[in-house]
Design brief:
142 residues
Amino acid sequence: MHSNERTAWAWLICLLTAPLIYFSKLNHFEWVQGNSELSRLAALSMPLIVMALVALGVRTYNMIQARQRGHDLVDERDQLIELKSSSVAYQVMMVGMIVVGMVMPFSATRWELIDTAFFVIVLAEVVHSSLTIRAYRKGTDA
């Protein structure tokens, strides 16, 4: 399995679990007694920290594997896959951020905006990882 595909799989699994726990259970708990804003911020930081640790762990593992095998070069195929998946994910994120930034401020609360922006970023990353996995499995023309 290519290191970029391994990274995409790990990131996709992380993106489907950590934010799901946040959106389903974590943001409803009272983490800091008497301060709901700080409780929501603490709840939001938990999946973000888990996601950062997963990203760093996979990156470290890939670097160790590349050193052991003696090759860490990225070829044109890898660059094309990254370009295609990033461009589609960027479009998804821009559409979502336009909704968050131009439509929702007139009717939503502060935490609805934050949660929706977080959801849009997660959705864009899921699209990016899914397209990367698909490209490595089926080829760049898929």
